[in-house]
Amino acid sequence: MSCISVIIDQRPATVPYYIKEGDDFLKSFEFFDADDNPIDMSGVGDVDFFVDNVSVATLGSGMTVSGDDNNVITLGAQNTYTAGSYTYAIKVVDGEGFTQTYIDGKLKVIA
């Protein structure tokens, strides 16, 4: 009997986010799988945008799902953060209640 070595990589994409102090968060993200097929987000239970582990926007309140293939998540939320460095994450809760972090990284608010 042979053993097959498999690597499952479920790490989020790490993307730096730079924004000017006083400008609002307004950014769209397109999601594709490893085969470059659109990931349909139409059945998700929630999409959350966190800054330093505090929810800033949720689905229907600053986060939307759109696009021809329902694979675009758009963030539109007020930025109340002062100049400095923070962390952020975009987490998706699927229709069954399971949470996965799709994107995270450093958030830099520039004066």
Quick tags:
111 residues; mainly beta; 9-stranded mixed β-sheet; 0% helix; single chain
Structural class: mainly beta
Note the gap between the termini. 62 Å
Which radius of gyration do the C-alpha atoms yield?
16 Å
Query: Uncertain spans, ≥5 residues at pLDDT below 50?
Result: none
Series of secondary-structure elements, N-terminal to C-terminal: EEEEEEEEE
Q: Mind describing the biggest β-sheet? A: 9 strands, mixed
What number is the mean pLDDT? Answer: 93
> How does the overall form come out from the CA principal axes?
globular
Layout: helices, strands, pairs:
Elements: E1 13-14, E2 17-20, E3 25-30, E4 46-51, E5 54-59, E6 62-66, E7 72-77, E8 84-93, E9 99-110
Parallel strand pairs: 1-9, 2-9, 5-6
Antiparallel strand pairs: 3-7, 4-5, 4-8, 6-7, 8-9
